[in-house]
Amino acid sequence: MTQQRLVIVGAGMAGTRLAEEVRARDTDSHWETTLIGREADEPYNRILLSEVLAGTHDAEDLRLLPDDDGDGVGRMLGTRVVAIHRSTRTVHLSTGAILPYDRLVLATGSVPILPPLSGLRSASGGLQEQCFAFRTLDDCRGIIEAAAHAKRAVVIGGGLLGLEAARGLAGRGIAVEVLHAGQWLMNNQLDSEAGEVLARTLSRLGIQCYLEAAARGIRVDDGGRLTGVRLADGYVLDCDLVVFAAGVRPNTQLARDARL
């Protein structure tokens, strides 16, 4: 039987699980499976990122696949798919390579939502120094490195991920303030009474929460150093570290470009 080429775009938890399940069922080696991932790290358990930030897990603990393709799944990591050509059944990679497929799966996940704050972007177009999304292992490493020199942090987003980030930073001895647009914390999962209990619990951990609060801008000094977050009412929270955990949106650009 001719071997079929299965290409999975996205080496996150969903794409990795699919590759594992295909291999487990492929007793006659019908499929040649390749995972393509934008991140240079081996596939990892994203759910445990907050534990890495808190210092209770190492990055190595999060790995999902064995070393050296020991699972029979080929990996192309640190590689971005720039285009899908459905007529020729090929994917075009950021390296310039062209990879053919018989079956293609998009498991591209989501990207963090960054609010349109004034001053958020540096002159180069990236985030200001000491400002981080909290989505990838690289984000987590950057936050940990910044936290080693920070005294006050603002976490934007009072959902589960934001509160886990706040807890991790507080555990590193940093004063943490959380900005949340909702009427109570984790309003998508909890009712108001439970949200109030959660706020009191976080307060005992040294985490101050501001509800129905919206950030409007990032303040930096003349040297480009982060100094605070400006709120909608004009009040400024002094800080030297900002973490964004304000939700995610589906990463569908590649699918749209391919006219799916």
Structure description:
The chain is α/β, with parallel strands linked by helices. The protein contains six helices and 17 strands. β5 (90-93) and β6 (98-100) form a beta hairpin.
Report on the biggest sheet: 5 strands, parallel
Secondary-structure-derived class: alpha/beta
Helix content: 10-25%
Range of strand content = 25-35%
Shape: elongated
Radius of gyration: 21 Å
Please state how the strands of the largest beta sheet are arranged side by side. 9-16-10-11-12
Order of helices and strands: EHEHEEEEEEEHEHEHEEEEEEH
Q: Which regions are unreliable across 5 or more consecutive residues at pLDDT < 50? A: none
Q: Give the number of DSSP strands.
A: 17
Average the pLDDT over all residues and give the rounded result: 93
Tally of helical segments: 6
User: End-to-end span in angstroms?
Assistant: 30 Å
List keywords for this structure.
alpha/beta; single chain; 5-stranded parallel β-sheet; 260 residues; 4-stranded parallel β-sheet; 6 helices
Please outline what is shown here:
The chain is of the alpha/beta class and 260 residues long. It has six helices and 17 strands. 29% of the residues are buried.
Would you spell out the secondary-structure blueprint of this structure?
Layout: E1 4-9, H1 13-25, E2 31-37, H2 49-54, E3 74-77, E4 81-85, E5 90-93, E6 98-100, E7 103-106, E8 110-112, E9 131-133, H3 137-147, E10 152-156, H4 160-170, E11 175-180, H5 192-204, E12 207-211, E13 215-220, E14 226-231, E15 236-238, E16 241-244, E17 248-250, H6 253-257
Parallel strand pairs: 1-2, 1-7, 2-3, 9-16, 10-11, 10-16, 11-12
Antiparallel strand pairs: 4-5, 5-6, 8-17, 13-14, 14-15
